[in-house]
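Hey,
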Amino acid sequence: MSIAITGTGSYIPTLTITNKDFNKHEFLNLDGSTFKHTNEVIIEKFKAITGIEERRYASKEFTTSNLAFFAAEKAIESAQIDKETLDYIIVAHNFGDLVHGQTQGDTLPSLATRVKHQLQIKNPKCVAYDLIFGCPGWLEGMIQANAFIKSGIANKCLVIGAETLSRVVDDYDRDSMIYSDGAGATIIERTDIGGEIIAHESGTYAMDEANYLFFGETYNKNEEDNTYYIKMFGRKIYEFAVTHVPKAMASCLDKSGIEIDEVKKIFIHQANEKMDEAIVKRFYKLYGKEMPEGIMPMSIAKLGNSSVATIPTLFDLIKQGKLENQEVKKGDVVIFASVGAGMNVNAMIYRI
């Protein structure tokens, strides 16, 4: 018997926003000044760095917990389990439920409770709670669920990452083009049909790094706007990520006893294509090796950065055979890795 992922599911919103949709935006610097470049040049540079061509936004009538519910239904169906046998529902997010047109997050009741309600689970011993851990939240939820099952506290858990970041962006901030909406879910349980969580690693860097991602004012100094939006120090995050994530991945791999050549895929948080590539290259460099071709599946070009939803969504797409030239097979060793607000990093070694 081992602890494994027995079901996956994801929800990809239907509203597609292309880079061209930002052509008429007024992008401003931190101090409110205008850029010297045209939007066409700004957007072209943005695409070259991030790899993002388009992203998905949730329909107006749906909130984060709705997206989480849609992904959860698919994961439960994939695992072929009775939903009433779930011991925990863990929902990772950052901003709660956001009604379209508003940026005030609603977490009362918790999103996990709302998902349980939408699933119509009657069992009171199915405990539902939220997890705030930045973009690595889904993976940290997996680590917690693994601990619950390993200790005997639980047998079966539903772990979800869901977010509607499009509703907390400052339209005057060019970083707003990065963010998107979506949800991914997994069922994790003790099983004898294969699959195994082998090792994991987590860390929080909260000195100078604590506020690399934060809530801040609009860049438009001429507007009387008391609303706060998601903001980041992009260069600092890049430098932090390429320094600390490869080390966390290596520490996790060394702990697992698995040789690096056995790793078939690396499912990394879809934050920025260039950054992710730099992380994986540095990871292999730690072992004196070159990054293998095709080792790092990417969905960011079409889906953008949906924070906690990126890894479980990407994993589900590949499990379903929906990502061209990418597949995983039973027995393959893969690495999950993420970085985000906190600043938090984590990694997991998993045998499919």
